[in-house]
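thread: overnight batch results

M.L. [08:02]
morning all. the overnight job finished for the chain we discussed friday. pasting input first so we're all looking at the same thing
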Amino acid sequence: MKKTALNVPNTLSLIRCLLVPVFVASLLLMRDIPIWGCIVPAVIYIITGLTDMLDGKIARKYNLVTDFGKFIDPLADKFMVLSSMIAILVWMLLLGNTTLALVFVWVVLVILLRELGVTSLRLVVAGKSGIVVAASMLGKIKTVSQMAGTVVLIIEPIIPFFCENHILSYVMMAIMAFTTLFSGIDYLKAYLPHIDSNK
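M.L. [08:03]
and the structure it wrote out:
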């Protein structure tokens, strides 16, 4: 297959970027609509997550890796993760779930700091030595936990029993926080040996 700037993987990444504001808008604007106010943003988020899983696999399988793809794919990932986390936090506050939001803000903080830290390390190491550390299993588990946790947080309000005590949300927030933290530590161990503190 021909390598072009807008090949299939890169198109999927661009679609992911475009779906993020659609997801945020549906989550916030439809919050007072029973059932559909949860289902619609959840479906949009799942579609967005599927593009994340597909673009990399297609690019590697058909040798469609491009410089534009190396730029747009991680950008779309960060755009999706950080925008969705902030949107859900605002959504919780608008729905009056203050206690849940106060807990979730710490999860968002962990995710934000991890993404900034790992991205900064990657840029420094790749810029100086050209070394690229592949995604670890912990990193993949982190991604899956964040996606699953996001969907659970959105649909829990329409699940009987759990909509009142938020047990599912608290469990998923704990899983998201721990997998994000430990994957960040894993990346630190991988990247730090390549950084010369004397330079």
